[in-house]
Structures are given as structure tokens and as C-alpha cells.
UniProtKB/TrEMBL annotation:
It comes from Streptomyces nojiriensis. GO terms for molecular function: metallopeptidase activity. Its EC number is 3.4.24.-. SUPFAM superfamilies: Metalloproteases ('zincins'), catalytic domain. Keywords: Hydrolase, Metal-binding, Metalloprotease, Protease, Secreted, Zinc. It is an enzyme of class 3 (hydrolase). Extracellular zinc metalloprotease. Pfam families: Peptidase_M4, Peptidase_M4_C. Its cofactor is Zn(2+). Residues 95-172 form the Peptidase M4 domain. This is Neutral metalloproteinase. Transmembrane segments: none annotated.
């Protein structure tokens, strides 16, 4: 039975839960309001899911609405349209620009027509609610809170946050990773990966130059150097007096086991996303250059090839095989993928432990490792076996269809 997709939001529940316990009444009230708003939106999406239908194509056109601090979207005023002038409201313009950058990134890098691949229109609602410290993707549109000005700034102020939320829509229309446990952590990780890549693409940063931080511009605006998450070093993004230390693990040996409930973060989806996040960072740096040119397409094709219930092991195996298909069996890109997953303690199926443990050295202009004949031969065997399994599955399906 397929699980209902929840409302997606950038702020992990473990942060808001801690803020509700604050001695500061203003901080406590803002966090409570945000949690209540999130719960209401989650309920609305569950109801709407029972009447689900395909989104009408809209030429990927952007419209930004001003909620004027209301949570009733039907009364929101149109603030900026695709053909209209720039607004006097900075939040409106930031949301409009970020929606466009994310749309253009998917179009130019992956030849994808908007979120659903069919020109889905992009609607954003700014000044949503009163001091709401979150940004949401509800399956059709984006909602931006203004933050409380203390722990959270204006949520339109972070490009990677907006790209993160829109990427939840891309995942909905590709793998549809179920939002719990490891598949849910993969869902969250995909949003961090492509959210970070949109920012790097805009800034024209190489993998080495990028900061690999998520939400640094909107989390604790008065404190420099911290962020909601670090893809480069999960577990080090923040050490905050109100919420404690970043709890993300960076390897399977630190995997966080939580109940599959709301209070358990759906089985730790915001916690354990640190593991595939680190694998992508290591892959991108291992290959070198601009991460959206090789590592990005590799992850995107793997996302499209994945299924809703895939686990970390499944995705690691898929990225390894896709690296061989896209860039050559046993090549530097595939070796970088293998080394990255091994570093986070996930061994690609069928590959001997330690084969790519040695860190790479630039030999091919990309900054990645050179070819290894043993890896190439083994990978060919793995891919041949995979092809045989696929062919056998098709034969079995055909036999069933004739009965």
C-alpha cells in the first residue's frame, strides 16, 4: 500500500521541538505557531491527495502572491507575474527569482520542463502566516514564512532552500521516494543535493569552491557560520545553545534509529539524509570541476531510475551502474562513486571491499581517479548480470500476461 505524501518543509522537526522548550516566550510562541501551521498543512494535503489529479501544464510560468500574514491562500494578492514589473517587496522578488533560477537549472542542465517535466506552473506565496519559521512545498505550490527574526530569517532569502523544496516536487514526479525511513531520507537528500547544485550553478562554483551548506542565510540570522545542514560534514552544521548540536550522521555506523511517526521524524528522514548527502559531496569532489556537469546528471538519472521504496543500498548500486552507463565502465566517475559510498560505509553490491578505498589523485583534468582494470572488469560483470536479471524479469512478466 502506497503511503500518503506529507507536506514538505525545510526546517527539521527536531529543531522546532527544541525551540518550543525555550525559556524565551517569543521564541517559544513562534516555534509553536510554526508547528501548528505545519500540522494543519499536513492535514490539508492528506485530504487533497484523495482527490488527486494531474497538474495542468502552465508553461512553467511564475506567479508570486502576497498572503499579507494570513494563512488563507484564497485571499492572497497577486504580487508579481511572469510578464509583470519587479515588485517593491524584496520577499516577492527573491521568491520570483529563485523560482526562475530553479526552473532554468532543471531546463538547461537536465532538459526537464519544470517540476513535473510537463511545464507545471510555479506559484509562490510570501508573507505566509505570522512569524512562521518555515518554507513549504504542498504538492502544488510553495509557501514562505517570514521567520521570527531571531532563529529564522525571511525564508525567501535562501536560494538553496527554495530549490530544495521545489525538488521535492521533482521527486514526487520521478522516483516518488516514500517519505519514511531510508527512502524518506533519500527523498530529503535529493532536495539537498539539487538545492545545493542550483546555488553552485548560479554562482559558477566548482565542487571544491562550494560551501555545501543548506539554509545558512535563513537559520539564526544573527549568528554567522552555521546552517541547517552541511553536506560536506554532516553533524557540524550548528551547535546552538537553544537546540544543541547538529544530530546528522555521516556514515552508516552512526545511523539514527527512530520510530516511524511524526515525533520520530518519519523514521529519521531529516537525520539520516546526512549519509547520502555526504556520498554525493564525496562523489562531486572526487570527480572535480562543476558538480552539475557530471555528479549532478549521474544523481538525476539515478533518481529517475529509482523506485518508491528504494533503500540506501539500492540507490548506491543504481548510482554505480549509472556511472558506468553515462561515463564509461571503470572510469574515474564510477570509481569516485564507489569510493564515496565506501566512505559512508555502504558497499556497492558485488564489489569487493577496499577496491576503491584509496583516495583519488588528479590525472585526467577532472580531478578524479584514473582507471582500474580490475574495477572495469568487475563492473562489466555486474552490469551484464543486471541486464540478464532485467531480461529474465521481462520474460516472467510476459509469461504471466499470457495466462
Amino acid at each position: 500500500m502506497r503511503r500518503t505524501r506529507p507536506i514538505n518543509c525545510i526546517i527539521p522537526p527536531y529543531i522546532l521541538d527544541k525551540l518550543v522548550e525555550s525559556d524565551d516566550r517569543e521564541v517559544r510562541q513562534a516555534a509553536l505557531n510554526t508547528l501548528l501551521t505545519t500540522a494543519r498543512l499536513r492535514g490539508e494535503r492528506t485530504v487533497r491527495a484523495s482527490f488527486a489529479g494531474a497538474a495542468a501544464p502552465g508553461g512553467a510560468r511564475r506567479t508570486v502572491f502576497d498572503c499579507e500574514h494570513s494563512e488563507f491562500l484564497q485571499t492572497a494578492a497577486v504580487a508579481r507575474t511572469e510578464d509583470g514589473p519587479e515588485s517593491a517587496d524584496e520577499s516577492v522578488n527573491q521568491a520570483f527569482d529563485a523560482l526562475g533560477l530553479t526552473r532554468d537549472f532543471y531546463k538547461e542542465v537536465f532538459q526537464r520542463d519544470s517540476i513535473d517535466g510537463r511545464g507545471m506552473r510555479l506559484d509562490g506565496f510570501v508573507h505566509f502566516g505570522e512569524k512562521v519559521g518555515n518554507a513549504y512545498w504542498d504538492g502544488r505550490r510553495m509557501l514562505f514564512g517570514d521567520g521570527d527574526g531571531l532563529e529564522f530569517g525571511d525564508l525567501t532569502g535562501s536560494l538553496e532552500v527554495i530549490a530544495h523544496e521545489l525538488t521535492h516536487g521533482v521527486t514526487d514526479h520521478t522516483s516518488a521516494f516514500e517519505y519514511h525511513k531510508q527512502s524518506g531520507a533519500l527523498n530529503e537528500s535529493m532536495s539537498d543535493v539539487f538545492g545545493s547544485l542550483v546555488k553552485q550553478w548560479k554562482l559558477k562554483q566548482t565542487a571544491e569552491e562550494a560551501d555545501w551548506l543548506i539554509g545558512a542565510d535563513v537559520w539564526t540570522p544573527g549568528i554567522g557560520g552555521d546552517a541547517l545542514r552541511s553536506m560536506k560534514a554532516p553533524g557540524t552544521a550548528f551547535n546552538h545553545p537553544l537546540v544543541g548540536k547538529d544530530p546528522q550522521p555521516d556514515r552508516m555506523g552512526k545511523f539514527v534509529h527512530l520510530p516511524d511517526t511524526r515525533d520520530g521524524d518519519n523514521g529519521g528522514v531529516h537525520y539520516n539524509s546526512g549519509i547520502p548527502n555526504k556520498a554525493f559531496f564525496l562523489t562531486a569532489v572526487g570527480i572535480g570541476g562543476f558538480a552539475w556537469e557530471a555528479a549532478g546528471p549521474l544523481w538525476f538519472e539515478s533518481l529517475k531510475a529509482s523506485t518508491a521504496q528504494d533503500q540506501f543500498q539500492d540507490f548506491a548500486d543504481t548510482t554505480f551502474l549509472k556511472a558506468g552507463e553515462l561515463f564509461g565502465v571503470g572510469g574515474p566517475e564510477q570509481t569516485a562513486v564507489l569510493a564515496a559510498w565506501q566512505e559512508v560505509e555502504i558497499q556497492v553490491t558485488g564489489v569487493p571491499i577496499g577496491l576503491a578505498r584509496a583516495r583519488s589523485h588528479p590525472v585526467n583534468g577532472r580531478g578524479g581517479p584514473g582507471r582500474e582494470d580490475a574495477l572495469a572488469a568487475l563492473t562489466k560483470q555486474v552490469m551484464t548480470l543486471s541486464d540478464k536479471v532485467t531480461a529474465l524479469a521481462k520474460e516472467v512478466a510476459a509469461l504471466k500476461a499470457t495466462r
